[in-house]
Amino acid sequence: MHRLRKAVALALLFVFALGLWGCGGAPREEEAETSLAGAPGTYSATANGHNGPITVEVTVDEGGIKDLQLAESSETPMIGGFAFDVLREQILEHQSLQVDAVAGATISSWAFLAAIKDALTEAGADLAALESREIEKPAPGQLTWETDILVVGSGMAGITAAVQAAEAGADVILVEKLGYIGGTSATNAGFIYGAGTKVQEEFGIEDSAEQYYKDLLYLTEVAKDEHIDPNLLKIMALNAPENMQWLVDRGIKFYTVDPANIHPPRSTPRIHKAEGGGSAIIETLYKLALDLGVEVYTNTPVVELLKEGDRVVGAKAEDIYGNEITIKAKGVILASGGYARDKELIKETNPKLTEYTVSNTNEGDTIKLGQQVGADIILKNSLLMHHVAYASSGIGYESYDAFYVTPEGERFVDESTYFYWRSRELRERGFEDMWTIVTESLYETYKDAIEQSIEAGKAFRADTVEELAEKINMDPAVLKKTIEDYNKMVEAGKDTAFGKPAQYLSKVKEPYIGLDMYGNLVDTTGGLRVNENSQVLDTEGRVIEGLYAAGSAAWAQTISQEYEGSGTAMIQCLTFGRIAAQHAASQL
Ligand SMILES: Cc1cc2nc3c(=O)[nH]c(=O)nc-3n(C[C@H](O)[C@H](O)[C@H](O)COP(=O)(O)OP(=O)(O)OC[C@H]3O[C@@H](n4cnc5c(N)ncnc54)[C@H](O)[C@@H]3O)c2cc1C
Q1: Contact predicate 315/302, CB 8 Å
Q2: Does the residue 398 lie in any domain?
Q3: CB of 556 closer than 6 A to ligand 1?
Q4: CA 120 to CA 281: how far, in whole Å?
């Protein structure tokens, strides 16, 4: 399984066994009752994790820490849960608390460690001794591995490619930069977009892959994105039925299929919602990959692509032990995500963007790796970004009765349109932020979140429009006119400006509340240029032999800012992750 980790772990266990028990032999009688870990028994303690409280049970015996169990947790299984398993293995193996947080799951890791320490304190453990017990690391060296196909990144694109390549008979190594498996995909909702599927049929939904393709073409036009390649869109749409079934056949269960929005083309139910979210999808495919013999290494970022002549022949990676690893491979699949966390590149490509949050894990390694081998890189002045409100998971999504204005106080959109549609409109008008002016019905639905936002200084309340305008830095005359015009349309029951359906029209009245809406960067829209086999192309349009890319590493030609619906990212990863693996395996 974790080949490197296992080898190092065994070596450390040996070193540690010598150190802990000296010349061997059983502990003397009087030492057998308590150990550095305290008095035998099971102790529990709770700490606050990433998603809420976690409770850990620690069992101590005469030999030390005997077992660690997670009694209660709402952490994401493939992130916090994975981190707990990693920490558990290390602590039990080395009887030491000198362990590092799992990269990408630090909040969960610190919570587990805090709870474990509290429980051990209760047991009467010598915490200082356990914390200072060094875990000896072997001297770093140079390693060489060899495989048929190297997959870089373990998100949806990478884990799909690994499974598909192994099923096609290839030897596969998958390396992951973070300390857990799944990247952004493990954090996501597990929605997958597609049409003409058996799952839709089972839910009584009439639809077709051909219609899906037409709708994708239409949205490309709306987005005015000249990089979109209709041929690749067609592959994604027409293969959706088969790809969705591929997942179902491997154990993914969909509990419903929903529309993305009330307006066509998004009103057809196409969002396939998986049980357990993205974490469960990744976990299922990860276990399958291990069963198929894929070797998986976490904490092992690829830092360089290796080329011989015009062909990519592998990569160089590093691990947390300082080893430099040369991985020779006949095919390399970059599934290493986009560049949402590369602040400089985001600024360079989207210069107007100032304040935003990022809920994606990727730092732009794909772009740097692609540059090393002369790949054609498409960068866009657009992002998968939508606007959300502080303290609310609802406002900004299906809150069709909201009333949005630009920072200049002007209404700009039918608030019932899809949230990516709205954010594109906003950006096209030259703005990056917007405000929700709270309507009567919006306040009813989201009272608690709105009040919390006011307390946190993310929303402002005022008795008059003028006072509100001053607080949120707008021209009072403009805001006043916008609100008056809107209220007149509400009274008349007809939105003559943007055509919002009458049932979502709700009045704005005193006290006036303005809610700051900031951009949340979900993913980027650029990436490496690829052909229909997911092979990476160079700046002359030639195939870089041996190099493939899928998912947000290479979706500039399939994903525009006018994203069709939640789940489009996952269908892209699934489609092109499989295609890359099939083509790479066919070349062996
Ligand atoms: C909160 C949230 C909810 C979302 N919900 C949905 C949804 O329901 N449906 C949907 O379709 N989309 C959703 N998205 C978007 C979607 O999750 C991402 O666009 C998608 O996961 C991208 O998948 P990927 O495999 O390309 O990248 P990732 O899942 O990010 O995987 C890339 C992996 O590569 C690794 N990596 C990076 N560099 C290196 C390197 N040098 N060496 C080795 N490994 C490396 C990363 O650590 C990461 O694990 C959501 C996004 C967010 C943030």
Answers
A1: yes
A2: no
A3: no
A4: 35
Coil/strand/helix, residue 323: coil
Distance CA 109, CA 99 (A): 10
Does the beta carbon of 561 sit less than 6 angstroms from any atom of ligand 1? no
How far apart CA 553 and CA 364 sit, in angstroms, is 9
Give the chain's radius of gyration (CA, Å): 27
CB 568 near ligand 1, within 6 Å: yes
332 lines ligand 1 (CB under 6 A): no
Long-range contacts of 441-445 (CB under 8 A, 24+ apart): 441/401, 441/506, 442/395, 442/399, 442/401, 442/402, 442/403, 442/506, 443/513, 445/394, 445/399, 445/401
Strands 434-437 vs 404-405: parallel, antiparallel or unpaired: antiparallel
Distance 79 CA to ligand 1 centre (A): 13
The boundaries of the domain holding residue 500 are 403-516
Ligand 1 pocket check: which of 51, 175, 184 to mutate, most ligand atoms within 8 Å of Cβ?
184
Does the Cβ of 525 fall within 6 Å of ligand 1? no
Looking at the chain, how many residues does it have? 588
The response to whether residue 465 sits with its C-beta less than 6 Å from ligand 1 reads no
196 and 114 in a common domain: no
Boundary residue ending a domain (110, 132, 154): 132
Same domain, 411 and 489: yes
Residue 292 lies in a domain: yes
Rounded Cα distance between 225 and 142, Å, is 45
Q: Per-10-residue mean pLDDT for the chain, 588 residues long?
A: 35 30 34 77 96 95 94 92 94 94 93 96 94 88 97 98 98 97 96 98 98 96 94 98 98 98 96 97 98 97 97 96 96 98 94 87 96 97 88 81 96 95 89 94 94 93 97 97 98 97 96 93 96 98 98 97 94 98 97
Domain identity same for 496 and 529: no
